[in-house]
Structures are given as C-alpha cells and as structure tokens.
C-alpha cells in the first residue's frame, strides 16, 4: 500500500462547521435569498446586540441557536415578495 500523500493527510483534517451563523436564528443576512457562508449581516442576539456585530455566514459562537426550516422558508418568502 502506497504511503499517504501530504495532501490526503491534510484533507482528513478538514471538517465542515455545521453550527455557524448562516443557520443561526440571530443572524440577519443582508441578502436573505442568496445568503451563503460569505454573506454578512448583523447578529441580533440580545447579549451581543449592544456590540453592533456584523458577522458572516461562516462565523459562529457558543450562543448559536438553530433556525427552524419553516422560519427560513418564511423569511425567503417575505424577501421574494419585496
Ligand atoms: S454570533 Fe453567535 S448568536 Fe450571533 S448569529 Fe452568530 S452564532 Fe448566532
């Protein structure tokens, strides 16, 4: 069996972060319809709001709370009607 290449070793260390701002109920992306991990917007968590944080979809913190799918759909429906 061939030795594992450096690239293969590095790829094994890559993990995808699941609980990030993009799927957090407190994230308000500027573009709701096209939001991805690079999208930016304010964090509205009551403890963080005083700091006027602008976060991106790939950021995260320990105050994360998952946004329910029906909320995502309602936000997208509202945005598409504007
Ligand atoms: S900074 Fe924390 S609370 Fe704010 S949107 Fe991101 S995960 Fe949610």
Describe this structure in words.
The protein has one domain. It is of the alpha+beta class. 24% of the residues lie in helices and 7% in strands. It is extended. A two-stranded antiparallel sheet has the order 1-2. It is built from two helices and two strands; from the N terminus they run αββα. It has helices at 6-13, 69-80; strands at residues 40-42, 54-56. The protein starts with 5 loop residues before the first helix and ends with a helix. The chain binds iron/sulfur cluster (SF4). Iron/sulfur cluster binds at residues 21, 24, 26-27, 43, 45, 48, 55, 59-61, 63-64.
Structural class: alpha+beta
Helix content: 10-25%
Number of helices: 2
User: Strand order, biggest sheet?
Assistant: 1-2
Bound ligands, each once = iron/sulfur cluster
The overall number of domains is 1
**Please, what is the average pLDDT?**
85
